[in-house]
Design goal:
The protein has one helix at 2-35; strands spanning 46-48, 76-78. It is mostly helical and 88 residues long. Strands 1-2 form a two-stranded antiparallel sheet. It binds zinc ion (2 copies).
Length: 88
């Protein structure tokens, strides 16, 4: 059964080749992922709060605490595009 053996060997080689090829593709994709900086937050992982526009306070209330509730007064909120990671 020489022909049959040859066929199996060829199939094995193809399987190894496609495995390597797949891992190369996956490596390439994960590398690309690591390098893709989030454009929304410019890689910082947070963005200016849209409610207070980065001030941490709102002008809605006269007197008393006008701390922005959306960002708890920090003026920054977690980037929703990259989920605070700074990369996509
Ligand atoms: Zn805010
Ligand atoms: Zn981001």
């Amino acid at each position: 059964m020489k022909g049959g053996d040859y066929f199996i060997a060829k199939t094995d080689r193809y399987a190894v080749f496609s495995k390597k090829w797949m891992s190369n593709i996956l490596n390439f994709i994960s590398k690309d992922k690591k390098m893709a900086k989030c454009k929304t937050c410019n890689g910082k992982g947070n963005v200016d709060c849209p409610i207070c526009k980065g001030k941490g306070r709102t002008d809605r209330l006269l007197g008393g605490s006008n701390q922005c509730k959306n960002c708890n007064g920090s003026g920054k909120v977690k980037c929703s595009v990259c989920n605070g990671k700074g990369v996509i």
